[in-house]
Design a protein that fits this description.
By secondary structure, the protein is mainly alpha-helical. It is built from 6 helices and 4 strands, in the order ββαβααααβα.
């Protein structure tokens, strides 16, 4: 151990003693933090258990509806779907006419290719390309993601869906249900048939 003389007396360094005190204090603080974290974890588990126990005691009343079955049997929904199909049939006929025109021009071009001048051949090929583009644009306008079919479907079915939702809410209020799920939404994996409210909703819709 290194020593030095101060005022004629031996002096021993106190750095190691101070370090030991600091380390002990640090360990004590760490132990306190660990204990606090442990108590917080236990408290969290207790609160979680109490929460789920409260849900169980509440005895939530649940039900479910098959909205696809409701739409298939509700007359206004059936009428709206038929009207949409009639409009779509007209669009399909127009697109088929375009396809026939394209096919006819293709056959004509193939049959007469050897007899046509280069200028005439280029003219027909350009006409064919124009028909292709027009048919593609028409198809996108009618059946695209934001096309006329999607818009008309929303217009025709929106009032029907609003009415169905209104009746489901009414059934829920009358039966004091806490939640009513839709099986078509895909978030209902299993439920007993006694909780199925589809027929009850259809009965209310027919009133």
């Amino acid at each position: 151990m290194n020593t030095s003389t101060r005022n004629g007396q031996r002096w021993f360094p106190t750095r190691k003693i101070a370090d030991r005190k600091t380390n002990a204090s640090t360990r004590q603080k760490e132990d306190t933090v660990i204990r606090k974290k442990g108590w917080l974890a236990i408290l969290g588990i207790i609160i979680t258990n109490l929460f789920f126990a409260g849900l169980a005691e509440a005895q939530l009343k649940l039900g479910y509806v098959n909205s696809q079955a409701v739409l298939a049997q509700y007359q206004p929904a059936i009428d709206a779907q038929k009207k949409l199909e009639r409009e779509a049939t007209v669009w399909n006929q127009e697109l088929q006419a375009m396809s026939m025109e394209i096919r006819s021009l293709q056959e004509r071009l193939e049959q007469q290719r050897l007899m046509l001048s280069e200028a005439r051949k280029q003219e027909l090929e350009q006409e064919l390309q124009t028909l292709y583009i027009r048919a593609q644009q028409y198809q996108e306008e009618k059946w695209g993601e934001e096309g006329e079919f999607a818009r008309r479907r929303a217009e025709l079915l929106q009032p029907v869906i609003e009415k169905i939702n209104e009746v489901i809410e009414q059934v829920g209020d009358e039966g004091s249900f806490d939640f009513i799920f839709d099986t078509i939404a895909g978030n209902l994996l299993y439920a007993q048939e006694k909780h199925d409210l589809t027929d009850k909703v259809l009965q209310h819709l027919k009133k």
